[in-house]
Amino acid sequence: MRKLERNLYLVPIVLIGMAVVAGSLILTGLAQWRGSEAGAWRLPVSACCAAGAVGVILLGWYFLKLSWEITSIAGFLRKDKSSLIEPGGCKALSELREAINGRFSGNSSYITELEKQIGDLQIKIQLLRRQKKNTEAIIYSIHDSVIVVDESEKLLMANEAAGELFGFDFKDSQYKSIVELINNNENGFAEFLSHCRKSKARATRREIEFTQNNEPKTFDCIVSCVYDETEDKKKQVCGVVAVLHDITREKEISQMKNDFVSHVSHELKTPLASIAAYSEMLCDGEANDEETRKEFYSVIQTQATRLNRLIEDILNTSRIESGLIKVEKKNVSLAILIEETLQMIKSYAEEKDIKITGPKSKDMIVFGQVYVDKDMISQVIVNLLSNAVKYTPSGGSVKIETDVDELKGLVRVSVTDTGVGIPEDEVGRVFDKFYRVGKNKSQAKGTGLGLNLVKQIVEKVHGGRVFATSRVGEGSTFGFELPLATEVVESGV
Prior knowledge:
This protein has helices at 2-7, 11-35, 39-79, 91-141, 160-166, 170-173, 178-182, 189-199, 248-283, 290-322, 334-351, 361-366, 374-390, 450-461, 485-490; strands at residues 145-150, 155-158, 204-212, 215-229, 235-246, 329-333, 355-357, 369-373, 397-405, 410-417, 465-471, 475-483.
């Protein structure tokens, strides 16, 4: 702009040059008019010189006017003030600027509002992104399987648990048809999703069986439709969410409880029925002689003891699990405790013609002491021995052995029988509460509490360990390990 203004200073020089040219033309024309010998050309030459002089004058006047307007524009652009355009300047440019200014001023509020709306939209987009990340984080952290599909039943979202259940990777499976992904449509899960979407149900529940890691599992499946409100305020299904909760263990526990109640009811009814029957016969005077009455008394006492033992097992299991059982630990000779227990079990074993043997006398002498609750450990030994006798056919044998590991400071007690044995895949569950080996249920009656009580007493109360090994048709070995009393004292227990 400044360069343009500097160039405008040459305008006077140009005008002076034009004036000189015009004057030269005039003088040349006058000379031709006066002194030319060619009379025929004198008039045309003079006229041309006069016309050239007039043209140069007009050109100079137009150039002067143009330079003035250019000067006005340059001053306006440099100072950027509309009021500086002087009268006689470029009216068209002034009007154009006024129109542009009016247009800008009229749209300035609209532009400001648009900028505000853009800022609000950017904030909302950031919030939506954050909410989306939080939602994904919540879904991915859920232990249950979660699947989200759109209105076309294409996968939108799934957590790791769902990928493991259906065998797909979510990152590579997004926006694919759920029917193509699950590959195990025999359980009707895909049809269930489709039915819920078409019926527009808010929440539908169904138990569905799946096979995971070659094991049958039961899932509690809840499917809910996701609605999107349209402009006419009509709710339209835009997707479906399915949550699958593994209830396999819950169903097993429920079945165990049902079996337990059934077994306990039967176990309670049997001794009660015997007690009631023999008591009634005594009251009716059916026992005429003393020997018969003693027999009836013996049956009543035996059944009452059996009933009491069953109730005690139930109560003790509950007390140990709740931590309310009273424990009185002291140094006890495990050898003497085993000898006392054997005397209790021998009569039961003789009834079934089963030979029962205990540790050798020399083992009894070197056998160490343990820091335990005497009654509880006695109950452990009784349960193991009675279990061995119960599942051993007539003519078999039961042997209890002991071993002391002074290096580890442990004493081991094992009970081995020649009974029916336990299948290999069920050995690991024999200490579970309410669990009974399916093939052996017909061999003897029980509640499935005895071995679980052994585990609770040894491991939870005394910090020991239980173990079991078995072969079908050859027999089983059950036992436990406890720390020696010297080790307990040294550790400060």
